[in-house]
Each structure stands twice: as structure tokens, then as C-alpha cells.
Amino acid sequence: MDTISTSSKDERIEIRISAADKQVFLKAQKMSGDKSFSSFLVRIVKEKATEIIAKNEVIIASEQDREKFFEAVFSSQKPNKRLIEAAKRYKSKIALL
């Protein structure tokens, strides 16, 4: 995964939240040890965003693998020489068990 990192903080995000949500966030920030509310929010949102990205990248990779598998199994292509040799080696090893 590519990480986006910049040394300058030029961007702003403005959000509106309920008073109750803000109190929960402030309480969590104090318990977390983060020095500022902004640093707490950025850290938490970045952690969650990284988790979401990682999870979705695994899903996408799994989907691509699934497509390749089914394409290989159900395509009309005949196995190439390397695949035939690998199958023979596998069968000879299994026969020894």
C-alpha cells in the first residue's frame, strides 16, 4: 500500500458533529494521551482508513485470484508442457504416500 505523507499541513477538513459525539471524542482523546484534539482525530481516522484500505486491497486481490482460477479451470486452453510435467511430478509423489 502506498502511504501518503507530506511534511506541510496545508489542507483543512471541516465537519459538524453533535455535542454528544464531541464529548465522546474529547474523553477518548484525553484517555489516549494525544496532546491535541486534532492530532487525536487525525491519528484515529488515519488508522481506520489504513485498515479499510488494507481490507479492501485483500478483497480485490482475492477477487482477481478467483477470476484467474476460474479462467484457468474453465478455459478451452490445453495445459502447457510445464503444467503437464508438474502434474506428473505431483502424481509420482502422491503415489509414494
Automatic annotation (TrEMBL):
Keywords from the UniProt entry? Toxin-antitoxin system
Its protein name is DUF1778 domain-containing protein
Q: Does the keyword Ligase apply?
A: no
Could you tell me the Gene Ontology terms of the biological process aspect for this record? regulation of DNA-templated transcription
Family matches, as Gene3D superfamilies: Single helix bin
Domain of life of the native organism: Bacteria
Name the PANTHER family for this protein.
ABC-TYPE TRANSPORT SYSTEM (PTHR35401:SF2), COPG FAMILY HELIX-TURN-HELIX PROTEIN-RELATED-RELATED (PTHR35401)
- Record's family? Belongs to the TacA antitoxin family.
The keyword Manganese is annotated on this UniProt entry: no
